[in-house]
Specification:
With 90 residues, this protein is α+β, with helices and mostly antiparallel strands. Helix content is 22%, strand content 16%. It has two helices and four strands. The strands form two sheets. It has a two-stranded antiparallel ribbon with strand order 1-4.
Length: 90
């Protein structure tokens, strides 16, 4: 079963390859986050990048079983999830 949820973040950023990536806010539209297959890969693109970090910061403090950024599985998006994400960045 694939689990997705909607979270919004506003901005444009440049990924590690130098490509511009657009992220949207709930006021403009939400995007679906796929289930995490690589620890820290919140956006599901197969790599842990700045976009994953921005998404995690946007959902920091989320509590519950449906928190996509809960990398360590403790039910809360905390500094431990941030540490795992940063240690997995390429």
């Amino acid at each position: 079963m694939e689990r997705t949820q909607s979270h919004g973040v506003t901005g444009v950023l440049r990924d590690i390859s130098g490509n511009l990536r657009h992220v949207t806010s709930p006021a403009i539209g939400a995007f679906e986050l796929p289930a995490i297959t690589v620890p820290g890969d919140i956006d599901g693109d197969g790599q842990v990048s700045t976009l994953d970090l921005l998404i995690l910061v946007g959902i920091y403090g989320c509590v519950g079983d449906d928190c996509q950024g809960d990398i360590d599985g403790d039910g809360v998006v905390t500094v431990m999830d941030l540490i795992i994400l940063i240690s997995s960045m390429e």
